[in-house]
């Protein structure tokens, strides 16, 4: 096995110089650095990353704890985060919600000595969040946030719920169903608050028989949709708290032989790429100037490289934009 001693011998330098080239290249003269790098390349030397991390106190590794890949939003954010981190010279360890308990994931992350954490799987009152803060590991939350404090990038979810509901109201809909995930998660709670605000401004309320909370799985969303459409007075519009849920809802509606939007309008939130597919054309709401995952990753890397300022948490709220497509239309 090739060692740093072999590299030093070929380059005609000391082992200490080889170490500086690997860990602090700016401290080595350009000509010397080139000789060492040439020797590393010719010998095929692979530095011991564990030993190197002990020297630099950095593993150049980020841990990403993402929501389930059954939701296209998390497919897109995972792809963009890994791509950006790789481009910046960081490896990404990816964990998915549901595969392990969040506490077990965090214990694993601490054992791997990562430089930072990106996290979307957190509840409003989550004891793991307090552990993450106490750990001193730089972190950035995205899509979800705790009840107070923290570093995060999220949509203005209240505004998202409000704007998409206003759109349905302007089309003449009054019986609007809302299918949501658990409201102990900021995303779903805030979107519900926005929906209720828009309805209240129109002199309406979120009727109990039209509001359903589920685990967001396709099977649960489909069951709720079928139940809604078999009511004696079914909704004329259905709003789903995510686009992924809206796709499942769409499938259930179409299985009944009903037309969208002629028989029932349908809208989602997040505006993932699939929403704009020509075969789907889902009316949705999202943020289109930047990708949330990229913003979260950029901020985390800045904190890793420049340090964390505990007195000034990074709290970024992206403004939503409504995109009207073919799944919403006037009440008939």
TrEMBL record:
SUPFAM superfamilies in the cross-refs: lambda repressor-like DNA-binding domains (SSF47413), Periplasmic binding protein-like I (SSF53822)
Keywords: DNA-binding, Transcription, Transcription regulation
Top-level taxon: Bacteria
Domain HTH lacI-type: 2-56
Keyword Transport set for record: no
GO molecular function: DNA-binding transcription factor activity; transcription cis-regulatory region binding
Pfam families: LacI (PF00356), Peripla_BP_3 (PF13377)
CDD domains documented for this protein: HTH_LacI, PBP1_LacI_sugar_binding-like
SMART domains, A to Z: HTH_LACI
Protein name, as recorded: LacI family transcriptional regulator
Organism in which the protein naturally occurs: Effusibacillus dendaii
